Every structure is written in structure tokens, then in C-alpha cells.
Amino acid sequence: MSDIPSELQYTKSHEWIRMLPEQKIEMGITDHAQAALGDLVYVEVPEIGKQLAAGGVCAVVESVKAASDVYSPVAGTVVASNTALAERPELLNESPYTAGWLVRIELDAAASVPVLLDADAYARYVAASAD
Amino acid sequence: MGLKTSLYDSHLREAAKIVDFGGWDMPLHYGSQIDEHHAVRGDAAMFDVSHMAQIDLRGERTAPFLRRLLANDVAKLREPGKGLYSCMLRDDGGVVDDLIVYAMTPTWFRMVANAGTRAKDLAWLRAAAAPFEVDVIERPDLAMIAVQGPKARAKAATLFTPDAAARVCALGAFASAAFALAPVFATAEFRLPDAAASASGDCLVARTGYTGEDGFEISVPGFAGPAVWAALRGAGVLPAGLGARDTLRLEAGLSLYGNDLDEEHDPLASGVAWTVAFEPSDRDFIGRRSLEALRAAPSLRLRGLVLEDRGVLRSHQPVETASGPGAITSGTFSPTMNRAIALARLPAGSDGAAQVEIRGRKLAARIVDPPFVRHGKILVPM
After folding, report:
1. Integer Cα distance of B254 and B248 in angstroms
2. Which ipTM did the prediction report?
């Protein structure tokens, strides 16, 4: 059973979102996603200042097996990227919700956070898609 | 729901992540494919390769048949048990499959071919075998376990009786020893159920593999597979999945059918030119005339790439060299080198620097000659 912290929100594409003060979010990929991908060996994070569209690709994570895109649920500007992952991509496997965070985004003034899944809904979604 | 090997339940007990591979439900990894990779390079691990096609070829004219069928020459197999890697080719030189064939007796050869090409191979074999009156007998009753790594032979030898252990430990590369099951696995600690009923050749121990490390490929009847697997676990051999098998074979520079080898390309352009036996010049194997023409004017070669930038090389990524364009046929992240590596089909004569296009960006790579890693050591300049 994968770890799904109750204080976070989730997407159906297996990203997690942590709400930060001042219209900012932190995001990464879920424990379920890292387990499905297997040993991660390469992570590409965006540069600070990059403009992201809602639903656009904001990072690429690659396991030995395959490359996988990570999508931003919001429109905004990258304010921080986890550059430690370049040297230690395994942090994504070990601590997907803490040391393995990918990117922090400041929402555009006009943007709003879309409706996301809470932990219970995400857990049900993962269980249903496993059947 | 795919086909299952006799070891399927053994994999589930080890919490394997199961994936579809050519219609078979096979273990991808048992937790960490990188850990499994390192276990093979540094110690010993085992792979279930029971999905591969094991085929017996029997008849008075089996050797002449194989000298016609295969690009490599079974006349090199001068002792019983010796094995040989070869491609079988179409008339135009395209590769039908790559395989290993063992000379069991003068009139009996055992072939091990790829799982995904089983139906095509059997049809091809039967059509080619008919004029030679050679029987093509599939052996789906046999399981196969590949035990690989620097400590693989010593750990596997503990399963056998002292006589059998001495025989398998004395095997040279690509040699094999055939046994009936009962006397081989008759130690006090380890007896196989129903082993008494087996015939000679039901247990074949070959010093072969697909990882660039030493080891054995052990073929036994499916009913004995789980007991052998469990005994090897007891001897300290870790399970490893198809994920590690792919990174290991790629580091070892070994071509994979479907990626680096296919019907559209000849063996000279697929990294296996060394397995084509042009001598003796009067041996008329299928595909020979096409290869003679290609040999005079080579156009493509399978080479190695090491990525100098960060990223992961994957099949089908385009490559630019000073001699022209090419493409990656197999790419991965090398756990031993901590770098992305690939096999790529490139213009003959290309060397030095290359560029690989990944998601619209051109990254720097270096052309090298595989293998990248053998016997635990990195062989290309880093």
C-alpha cells in the first residue's frame, strides 16, 4: 500500500501538491508513481523564472525503464527547482513527499488552483486503477 | 493474463513486479532493479529464462541441416556439450532470430531461441528441416534458470552431487554438461521430487549467459524448477528480473532481438559480425550470398555510445556523427558506469564525438566500441 499523506492534494496523473503561503505551491510525484516507475536515474527540472501553463509539462523523470512527464496543475512561474535531484535522483524513490520535491510555482495573478483530489479520493483512484 | 513459467509462484512469493514480456507474465524486478544489477556484477543473482524457446533437433542429418541454417558453423563444435551463438538469416541477410545451439550427440542438438519469436522460429525451422528429415521438437516442459555473477558457479555447484559439481565447475565457456536429474540432485540436503523418471538431457548445465559475467544456464524439467530456484536462494543467490537483465546485457554490449537485431538488418550491421563464419568458403548457409555483397561495401555498423551530458539514452533517438546520421537501437542508464549508454546503428567509419537528440535538445555523446562492462570492470574510457 503506497503512502498518501492526508495534508496534500493530488492529481490523476500522480502528482502531489502542497499549498504554500502567498499563492505558491510545491509539487512532486506520489509514492505510487515512484514505485510504478522503479529506480529513478535522471530528473529534469525547470529553470527558475520559467512560465508554466496549466496542464503543461514542468519536469521529466526517468527511471531505468522509461521517461515520464510531470505536469503542472496550475499556470504560474517557477520560483524554485530541486537541483539536488540532478546528483541524487534516488531521493525521489526514497522520499517522494519531502527531499524528492520537484518544483515550487507562484500562481499567476489570474490563475486559481483547480479542483484536486484529496488523500481519500486519490487513494480510491489508485485502488480503482489497479483493478 | 499471460503465459506463466513454472517459477511464476516463486516470483510472487518474492513480491516481484510482474509485466508482460512477449505474451509471458515475467518478473521485471523484485524491488530494485539497480540493486539486482549490482548483485550480478559483484556476487550472484538468478533470472527465470524459462520463457525462452528450448528446441531439440534430432536426426542423422542434423549437423548438415544446421550448417545450412545458421550463419555460424556447428562444425566448430568438436566435443559433445559444446555450444555456439549464431543468427539464422533470411536469403536477403535479415536476421530471423539469434540463438545458442548445443551439440548434445552427433544426431541431437539443443537450440535455445528467443521467447517473442517462438512461433516464427518453429515455422522457419520446420520448413528448413524437412529436406534434411530432421525432427523439430519443442521442449515447453523445460524450465531454465540463469545464475550469473562472479560467485554464481560456486554457489550453484552446492546443489549438485560431488561428481556432478566437479563436472560443471570444469566446464569451459560455452560448454555444457547433460545429466539425468536423479543422480545430479541427489545430495542429502537436496533431492528433487519425481527426479527418478527423468532422461539424459533433462538437466543441461551450460556455462553461458547474457550479462557479461560468469555463470551457468541450468535447464531442468518445469516440475523441478521451483525446487532448484528455492535451493539456489538457500545458497545465497538473489532473484533478478528482466529490468536488470536488460541493463546487464547492454553494458556487456550484447545485441537484443527486436532492438538491435531484426529482419530489416543484416548481422554485419547489428554487432554480431563475429558470429558469421565465412570460412569454409564452400559452406552455403542461408543468407550467405547477400552477406558476401554487403561484406565488400559495409554501410552501417552497431557501435556504442556514452552520453557525456546528463540524461538517459533510449532506442529510436536520432544520432548525428561526422560520417552521417544514425539511430539508437537500445539505450539505458548504466548502473555500473553511472552514465547513459546505448547501442546505435551508425555509418561505417564514424568515430569520436556524436550528438543525440533528446526531447528537442542535442546532447554530447562519444562513440565507443562495446562491451562497456565485462566481469565487473568498465572497459570504455570514462
Report:
1. 9
2. 0.79
- Residue-by-residue pLDDT tens, chain B, 382 positions: 799 999 999 999 999 999 999 899 999 999 999 999 999 999 999 999 999 999 999 999 999 999 999 999 999 999 999 999 999 999 999 999 999 999 999 999 999 999 999 999 999 999 999 999 999 999 999 999 999 999 999 999 999 999 999 999 999 999 999 998 888 887 777 888 777 777 777 899 999 999 999 999 999 999 999 999 999 999 999 999 999 999 999 999 999 999 999 999 999 999 999 999 999 999 999 999 999 999 888 899 999 999 999 899 999 999 999 999 999 999 999 999 999 999 999 999 999 999 999 988 999 999 999 999 999 999 998 8
From the list A44, A64, A86, the residue facing B332 with the nearest CB is: A64
Distance from CA of B240 to the nearest CA of A (A): 14
User: How many residue pairs from chains A and B have C-beta atoms closer than 8 A?
Assistant: 35
Separation CA B226–CA B6 (nearest Å): 7
Q: Is B170 exposed, middle or buried (0-12, 13-18, 19+ CB in 10 A)?
A: exposed
Do B310 and A39 lie within an 8 Å CB cutoff?
no
- Enumerate the residues of chain B whose CB falls inside 8 A of the CB of residue A44: 311
Interface test with chain B among A41, A85, A90, by most B beta carbons within 10 Å: A41
Q: Specify the fold of A9-109+116-130.
A: OB fold (Dihydrolipoamide Acetyltransferase, E2P) (2.40.50)
All structural domains of chain B, each given as residue ranges with its CATH number in brackets, are 1-270+277-298 (3.30.1360.120), 300-372 (2.40.30.110)
| CA–CA separation, B238 and B342 (whole Å) | 27
Quick one: closest CA in A to B310, which residue? A42
Cβ(A107)–Cβ(A72) below 8 Å: no
Query: What global pTM score does this model have?
Result: 0.92
Alpha-carbon distance of B170 to B315, in angstroms, equals 39
Nearest to B333 among A41, A44, A86 (CB): A41
Q: Where are the domains of chain A?
A: 9-109+116-130
